[in-house]
Each structure stands twice: as C-alpha cells, then as structure tokens.
Design brief:
heterodimer; A: 538 residues; alpha+beta; ABC transporter involved in vitamin B12 uptake, BtuC; five-stranded antiparallel sheet; 21 helices; B: 436 residues; alpha/beta; Rossmann fold; 12 helices; globular
C-alpha cells in the first residue's frame, strides 16, 4: 500500500512538473486559437484532444464553454472568446482566465458548433482533468464518465487519483473506472479477471454494457469470466425488473387515482355522468401555468413554490366552474343520464375551445420545480422524483377526501342526500346546495389533480381528453359510490397495465386491460366493492 | 280578381328579378377575386399543429395581395374548420370546391385526413397542396406534396447517425405512435437498415397509442436495449402530444443525448415550445427547414410572421416553409398558365422553381414532389435547433420507396404522355400497388 502511494505521489509530481513546463499559458492560447480555423466536427475534435493532452486543469474552462455551446470566434480578428448571451448581444470573456472582455453583436461573432459526438469527446477529456477536483460530486461524475468510456491511457491518472482519494464511496467508483480501463488495455489476463470481478460486483446496466463489449473481443479465459459475470448480473437485474414494473404500476395507478378521484364523487357518489371531468383537470393544469407565468415575471425566487401556490387556486378555479355547471346545467337534468351525458359533453367542448381561444392551441410550458426533477436509485431501481411526489400527493388527497366524506358534518349530509334525497330533505338538509357543493368539491379535486398532471403531461386544451375514459374505467371497475374501490381499482389497473406492457406492448396491453374489465363487469356488474343495501336500489 | 292576380304575378316576377339581382351582385364581385381554400383543423386534437398553418396561409395571401394580387385579381382566403374529424375533411373539401369555387386548396396534416379528401379532389378536379412530411407510397394527379417524403427525412437522418459525426450508431430503437405514418416509415427504415448490414437483433420496434402519457416502461426498455455494449440511438416517429411526456421521462431517467440520442421526425420548434429543453440538449430532429437557419429570406419570413401574428415569441416550422414554397409555386404556375383552371395549372406546375427559406431553390418534380435540402439539427437550450449536418445538394422526393418490395418497381410521372402515378417499370404498365 505504501509503495502504491509512493508511486502515486511520484506520478502526481511528474504530472505537475509536466503541466508547468510542458504547456504554459501561451501554449494553451495557441491551441485555443486553432478553434478559429478548425472546419467540421472532426477538426474541432482534434483541437479538443490537443487541449486535453496538455494536461493543464486550466483548460477546463474553455472546454466546458465549448461543450455548452458558449465558445465564439470574433469575425473581425479571429480571436476565440467564451460568451454569454444577453439579449441581442453577447458578453465576451477570456476563454482561459474568464475575465470580461467587452461585448459583441450576435452578427459579429460565430459560435463554434458542437454535436453529441464532440460533447462526448469533451466530457471524456474533462473526466480525466477533473479527477482531482475538490468537490466529491465532480469527482464522482469524472469517475462515472471514465467508467463509461474506458481507455487504457486512463489507468495512470486513475491510479494517482485512487491513491489520494479520501472518500470511500468515491474511491470505489474510481476503482471500478480503473477496472474498466484495465479491460480495454493490454494488461495480463490475471489483471483483467480481477477487473471483471470488480465490475461484476457493480451489477448495473452500465456494467453489462461494458462487459458485453469485452465479451465480444477477448481471449477465452476473460471471455468466459465476462459471460459468467453478465449472466450473474442479468439474473439479479431480472429480479429488479419485476420490482421496477411494480413501481411503474404503482406510479401509473397514482396518476389514475388522481384523475379518477374527483369523478368518484361526481359520478360515483352523485351519479352524474360528467363528461366535462377531464376539462376540470385541464383547468387545474392551466391554473398552474398561469401561476408559473406570474412567478416567472414577478417573483422568480418563488419558482420552487409554484405548485404549492397553484394547488388552492386550481381547486378554487375548477370548483367555481363546477359550481356554475351544476347550477346552470346539471341540476335541471338529475335522473336523466342520457341528457346529462350529452350536455356535459357539450360543456367539455365549450371549455376546450374557450381555453384554446384564450391561451392558443399550442402546448404551454409548465416547468418542474427542482425538487421534482431527476431520479434516485434504490438498488438497481431508478425512481423519478416527480412520480414519487405524485404518488404521495395522490394518497394525501385520497386520505383528506375520505376524512371529509366520513368524518365531517358536510360529508354526512352529502352521503345522506345521495342515499335518500327526500328523507334528507325532510330532515331539513338543503339538498340543492348539497348537490351544488358536492359537484364543486369533485370538480375542485379534479383541478388539483391537474396541478400534479401538469408535471408529467402536456398542458394543452386536449389534456382532459386523455384521462376521461381511464377515469370512468377506474370508477366503474372499483365500484360506483365507493372511494376505497377507486383506490384499489386505480392501483390494480395500473399494475396490471405495466406488467402487460413489456410483453404485449403499450397498444395491445391497453386492449387486454379493457377486455379484462369488460369480462369482470359481466361477472360483477357493480365493480370490485359493490355498495350493499337500499341505497343501491334507489 | 283577375286584375289582382296579374298584380300579384307582376309583383312576384319583380321580386324574383330583384332577388336575382341581389344574388348575382356578390357573384359578380366574386369574379374579381380568386378564392383560395384553407382546410386546416382549428379545433380538436390537431388544432395544436394546424392552426399555425392556417395563419401562415393567411399571411402569405395578404402578402400576395399587397404585391398586387394574381392575374390582376385579389386573392381571397376561404377558411373552413374540419375539426380534426377525418370524414369532415372530405365534406369540407367538397364544400370549398363546389360551393365556394376555390382555385386551389392548401390543407390537411395527418395522412388519414389526406386519404379522406383524395377522392373528392380527383372527382371534382381541384388542387391540394399538402405541407407535411409523410410516409410516401402515394402520388396523385391532383395533389402536390410539399412536405418531405421518407427519403427526404428518414433515410438521411439514419445515414447521419451511422456516420462518424453522428456517433457510428450500431443498434436502433424505432419508437413510434401506432398509425400509418410511423408504421410505413419504420417498415422502410427497417428494410434500409438491414440492407446496410444491421442484424435483426440490433433493431427494436415499438409502438404506443396516440396521446400516450406514461412512458416509464418504454424508456426503461430503451435504456436496457442500449446497454448491450454497442452505440444505440432512438429513431422516433412519436406524434404530437405524446412527445412532451416522452422527453420528460427521458430527462428524468437521465438518458443523455451523448449516450442514447433520440432522432425525431415529428418534433419541431412548435412542439418544443411546450417544454423545458435544457435536459434535452443534443437530441436530434431531421427536417428540411429550421427556424434557426441564417438566410436573409428566412429572417424576412420570421419578421413578417411575428408582425402578422403580433407575437414575437411564436416560432416558425417546417410545414410553414412547405406552405411558403407551395403557395409561391402555385402563384408562379397560375401566372405561367394565365388562368386558375386546375387542369392547366396542374400541367404548368411541373418544373416550377421557387426560392425556399434555406438559401436555395425548390423545384416541382414530375412526381408532384419537390426538391429540398435535408437538415439534421440538435435541440438547444433555447428551444431552437442547431444544424449539425446538411445534405450537400437538394434531395428529390421519392414517392415509391426503393426499400419496400411492393413499391420498388413503381415510378410516378404526371407529364404527358405517361401521366401515371404508379407506373410499374418491371411490367411496363400503369397501375401497380403500394404497401398501403
């Protein structure tokens, strides 16, 4: 170990002396100037390699700028600058030191173009350079890049980095990256076998990808080891895949639950076939859009709170529209399901076209707050934050609604009116108002569902269309009039759907689910959790 | 009684004459204008894409009128709304031609709407300009296809991905929405890839329904397919609204363009406007036009568009350019023929050449398709595309794909004496079959 460290330190020293003597600042500037004359991606790539080969950490700034598409050539004197767009002009900075060097109009400079291939070349080059960065996150990113793009030349720098690494988790990643590089080098088979063992222990898709490449072009012993390691990883991954499917199913179920829960009230409890339900969801999503627009223009600091602010507003907007629909149309049509269906269908078209006229037919951009972006891993299971939050949110909405229905006086009145209207009226309940408020509640819940769905779907006038069929399916399947039925219905449909999808494909999967529901309804016409007692007959 | 009767007859005939005058008055006024039909959905699912094209047409017609109209007459736009309802497209087309007597129609977006109006156009003998990239396998006398045929979009896109610049892709995911355009395009691409030596196990084809929103399984399947040690790319014919959740899921699951790029054929500036594009930088699209193209013609077009629509945030896109080219071609052909009579204009159209917005000329070919450059662009953080590759010359639209066994022997030439849309060179007869 000690010997290892000494060699590492020597290498580090060697590198340090090389970078100070080999490529001075003027040399780097000389290389950077070549960007001005490089034609085509391959020539620019050659300049990148030359810069990276200089081994000076100072090249990180120009390379990062190039990868982000922020490196420019001034047409007048062919000088290379880093730039930052500011309206019609571009602020220029020195590519190495980052000092401001004035401004230029967009027409006076040309951007140095990059494409995916070039970005990958830069990423690899930066990987080697940022191995010694102070921030562990940067070192992890560097190790990750080097693992994915192994190169025999990386072994030296990686050895140095491993020797000086203090954080155990980062060190493990660095060792895996080194193992990956060993596999593509011409080191003896014994080294390679050790490397395969190390990579096999990593056990993820990247490891499979790397080993598959090794398997394709190696000698026998190594090949066998690689094949065995791949088989090993794949069997573990198959287990994780099942977990992944369940998670996807739960996540789809939470979306279905959110979309259907408002309908569970308007259709399930009140018995109104409300075809405009999807449009209530859409109004909630547009409320989110408007809130974000206001925040973007007036209070940019509050952006991460935009969804929290949008929730009550979306509830109010949709509830108000629901109230107007109930008072204006539906109350005249109670007990006439066919007319209700047609009238609410008409209302849905009116709402869609109204939104189209106000906001335009195109999609509106609703941003994800930072806490809803990206994903994290549980074992080999990638869980995206937005899906997790939507699940939590759906369950919370469900719990609150259940409380309102079962534990509050208002909920009691609601249930009383739907169970026996005349009896409830004789007890002094103002049934028309209970009807109106129940419908408003169902619509309002649809509105807050819209806030959540704006995070994963398009915000366009057609948003509601995609959810209306699924919502009815969930409510009918779960049992009309039963909130628990909606919950169980949503999650079971979600999970069945996601288990079928990998085998049957999305199109056929959907058809199979539909057929299953039809068969199920034949067997149990009242759904999973049928209401019992006299209320059903009414 | 008799007198009374004659009085009544007189009054009646007078009123008939008056009514006749009233009716004929606007009719005579109409003789001073040339009517142009616009057949784009302004409501329903397709309104998102088609409304913009309606506005673009109104702008082009306004500009032509400002230049003094056509043949000394003013152009008048007749806008109808087929409401994303395919049979209604046929009805509205009939109404435009029979009732409004339009000289030509600009319209349709989806292939099924185009198929639904084809019989109307050939029966009533009028002209349709179709501005959207489509699956090919069709050539009609009454239709001019100003969008891209598969060889003007799909094939060059795949070629780019196979090239060193594009990352030397070896493994392919063909991901599409389940309808005719993606299915035909993927059939052509599969045949093409196999002809290029790609093994069957290196191609994965998957379809999802319209408006699909839950992409978790598909994206993780792509991830899995991509971890076989070979460079992988996705060729996406996913349509319309389903794209936004698709890209959001890609971003969330951390699939970067450097690792698995997605090449899209139906994603333009307009679709990106509803997205935060920062996580998507580097994903690709193939079109014949990008808003970011730096030519004086394009700058003027964008400026005019912003002025017309009174909003400088609105983007321009490829089908708008197709209408720009198609409309200018029609104007030129009418001037050449000296009349708006559809038969004469159809004959005059072939060979007409007008400037496109990407710094060159587009020409109408005998197969009623046009020549265009093919551009590959990468998505940028500002929602625009940056051109990373451009075909060296213009590509001529090939209606019958050379890679499908059913259509490889077919050609189309609407000039006399051949005048046939599906001439089979193997049998030497007009009338072969396409794949759909």
């Amino acid at each position: 170990m000690n010997l290892f460290r000494t060699i590492g330190l020597m290498l580090l020293f060697l590198l340090a002396t090389m970078s100070s003597s080999g490529a001075g600042e003027t040399d780097l500037r000389g290389i950077i100037a070549k960007f001005a004359t490089a034609k085509g991606f391959s020539e620019i790539g050659a300049v990148v390699h030359e810069l990276a080969a200089a081994g000076d950490p100072a090249v990180e700034r120009p390379l990062a700028a190039l990868a982000d598409g922020n490196l420019y050539v001034r047409k007048a004197d062919s000088l290379v600058f880093a730039g930052k767009e500011a309206g019609e002009s571009v602020q220029l900075f020195d590519p190495l030191s980052g000092e401001a060097s004035g401004e230029a109009a967009k027409d006076d400079i040309t951007k140095i173009k990059v494409n995916n291939t070039l970005r990958r070349v830069i990423r690899d080059a930066l990987g080697t350079l940022t191995l010694g960065a102070k921030d562990p996150a940067v070192r992890i990113a560097a190790a990750d890049t080097m693992f994915k793009t192994p190169d025999a030349a990386n072994i030296g720098p990686l050895d140095t980095a491993i020797a000086s690494e203090t954080v155990a988790s980062v060190r493990a990643l660095l060792e895996q990256a080194r193992a990956a590089s060993v596999l593509v080098s011409d080191r003896p088979d014994a080294d390679k076998l050790a490397a395969i063992a190390l990579i096999g222990a990593r056990g993820d898709r990247d490891a499979v990808s790397l080993l598959a490449a090794v398997e394709a072009n190696s000698s026998d012993a190594v090949k066998q080891a690689a094949t065995a390691a791949i088989a090993n990883i794949n069997s573990t991954l198959a287990f994780w895949d099942a977990g992944q499917n369940i998670w996807y199913g739960i996540s789809l179920g939470s979306v279905l639950l959110l979309a259907a829960i408002g309908l569970a009230i308007t259709f399930g409890v009140m018995g109104v076939i409300n075809m405009a339900h999807g449009e209530m969801v859409m109004l909630g999503a547009y409320t989110t859009f408007v809130v974000q627009q206001v925040i973007r223009t007036s209070f940019p600091g509050l952006f991460d709170w935009s969804l929290v602010i949008a929730l009550p507003l979306a509830f109010l907007v949709s509830a108000l529209v629901g109230l107007i629909i109930e008072r204006g149309v539906i109350r005249f049509l109670y007990g006439r399901p066919l007319e209700t269906l047609l009238a609410t269908w008409g209302v849905s078209l009116i709402l869609q076209q109204a939104v189209r006229s106000i906001f335009g037919p195109t999609n509106q951009e609703v941003g994800n707050p930072s806490w809803m972006s990206g994903s994290f891993n549980v074992g080999q299971l990638a869980i995206t934050w937005n899906r997790l939050w939507i699940l939590v949110f759906a369950l919370t909405v469900f719990a609150v609604l259940l409380y309102v229905m079962k534990r509050t006086p208002w909920g009691l009145q609601m249930r009383a009116v739907t169970a026996n209207r005349r009896m409830a009226a004789s007890m002094g309940i103002r049934t028309p108002w209970v009807d109106a408020l129940t419908f408003a509640l169902g619509s309002g819940i649809a509105g807050i569902a819209g806030v959540a769905l704006s995070q994963i779907d398009n915000v366009s006038p057609n948003l509601g269309r995609g959810y209306i069929i699924d919502s009815f399916m969930v409510v009918v399947f779960g049992g009309v009039g039963n909130l628990w039925g909606t919950l169980v219905g949503a999650f079971s449909l979600g999970i069945v759907n996601k288990f079928l999808e990998p085998y049957a494909g999305a199109v056929l999967g959907k058809i199979v689910v539909l057929v299953l529901i039809i068969l199920f309804i034949q067997k149990r016409p009242r759904g999973l959790f049928a209401l019992k007692g006299r209320a059903v007959e009414a | 009684m008799r007198g009374n009767f004659s009085k009544i007859t007189k009054m009646f005939s007078a009123s008939v004459v008056a009514a006749g005058l009233l009716i004929s008055a606007p009719a005579r006024a109409a003789d001073d204008t040339i009517k142009v039909g616009i057949l784009h959905s302004l409501s329903g699912t397709m309104a998102i894409s088609e409304t913009t094209l309606k506005d673009a047409m109104l702008m082009l017609i306004d500009e032509q009128n400002a230049k003094g109209g056509l043949l000394g007459k003013k152009l008048e736009a007749v806008v109808v709304d087929p409401a994303s309802n395919w049979p209604l497209f046929a009805e509205k087309a009939r109404e435009l031609i029979s009732k409004d007597k339009v000289a030509a129609v600009f319209g349709c977006w989806t292939s099924v709407s185009r198929k639904s109006v084809l019989p109307v156009f050939s029966e009533l003998d009028n002209i349709l300009f179709y501005p959207v990239q489509y699956e090919g396998e069709e050539s009609e006398r009454n239709v001019f296809y100003t969008g891209a045929a598969p060889n003007q979009q799909a094939i060059p896109a795949v070629d780019y991905l196979m090239s060193e610049d594009g990352g030397s892709v070896k493994r392919w995911v063909l991901e599409g929405t389940d309808y005719v355009y993606p299915r035909t395009t993927n059939k052509i691409l599969e045949a093409y890839l196999k002809a290029k030596g790609v093994a069957a196990e290196d191609i994965m084809v998957n379809y999802t329904p319209f408006g699909f929103a839950d992409w978790q399984t598909e994206v993780s399947a792509i991830k899995k397919f991509g971890s076989a040690g070979k460079k992988t790319a996705v060729v996406s014919t996913v349509n319309g609204d389903a794209n936004v959740p698709f890209y959001k899921e890609l971003g969330n699951q951390g699939i970067k363009a450097e690792d698995i790029p997605v090449m899209a054929f139906s994603v333009g500036e307009e679709e990106l406007a509803g997205l935060d594009t920062a996580p998507l930088v580097g994903h690709l699209a193939a079109w014949n036009y990008f808003e970011s193209i730096d030519t004086p013609e394009n700058k003027k077009f964008i400026a005019d568009w912003h002025k017309f629509i009174k909003n400088d945030k609105r983007t321009t896109n490829d089908p708008m350019e197709a209408h720009y080219i198609g409309f200018n071609m029609w104007v030129k052909a009418v001037e050449k023929a000296g009349t708006t009579d559809p038969d004469k204009v159809i004959d005059a159209m072939v060979g007409v050449s007008v400037p496109n917005l990407t710094g060159g000329y587009s020409t109408m070919m005998p197969n009623h398709h046009i020549t265009k450059p093919v551009l590959i662009g990468e998505i940028q953080a500002d929602g625009q595309f940056e051109t990373v590759s451009r075909t060296p010359g213009l590509v001529m639209g090939d209606e019958w794909s050379d890679y499908l066994p059913d259509s490889k022997d077919l050609i189309s030439d609407w000039r006399a004496p051949l005048s046939c849309g599906n001439f089979n060179v193997a049998t030497g007869k007009c009338g072969g079959k396409g794949t759909n």
